[in-house]
Amino acid sequence: MCMKKFSQYLESHFFVSGIIIFTLLFLPGLSGCGDKQPFTFSVAADIQYSDKDTRINRHYRESIERLKDYVEFLNNGSHAFMIQLGDVIDGYSDDANRSAGELEVVLGVLDKLQIPAYHVVGNHCMSAGEDVLKTSFSLDRFFYDFSFPGARGWRFVVIDGNDAGYGIVSEGQVKWFRSVLIDAAANDERVLVFSHYALLREAAANHRMAQPDPLLEAMDETGNVAAWFAGHDHAGGYAYRNGVHHLTLKGMVESPVNNAYISVELLDDMIRITGYGDETSRDLLLE
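RESULT FIELD:
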């Protein structure tokens, strides 16, 4: 081989080697720059606004200001959606029109959201009337399920805890719930459930679902529910049962200074809860 050809060979050889070394050393790190961000949404419970004086640590009037702060937080963030867990108003059992008027005040704030909002109906919400709630929340019924772009492998389910009475779910809704869980399992989807009422005493020491057993049995059968989010018991709480995390959020109406809400990140091996204000942060490991 002449010196000229040998020189060309060396240049070509070292050029190719350099590319290989660069690829091995640097491209794996660079590829991480384009990793998909975790799917994130937000949850709040028991806004319970009303034009009433504070009673039993429930700051009814102040809660609308905390809701405004929450909406501003969401509009400056990167959440895919928010869901409220019921009792957006305190309401008046003897005055549906007045309850509906206060619902309009809350919706006037929520209308400023730049992300989708989903709704759970609580017992206090019912004071505004079923038809008013369906119109206000754009719902045909108060139990439903949905999927969301970017949350592949997850199903979101909303429970109506009052369709057969206070804290009681009808047989028809339990049948529907079971069918949704079966369908989600067939599609290899984990399920997150949102309800006004917690199911377990350990997760809500003071107030919870009156008849939780049919729902617990349905979840035990399929084994694909990852977490149950609830409100109603303003003190909040947490419990773990048969692979399901039961998380009860604190009431915004009882957090007049610090507020109370969470961000939820869906990761491969856990659900990461970031608490704001009086809420607690925690990592919920997935089985």
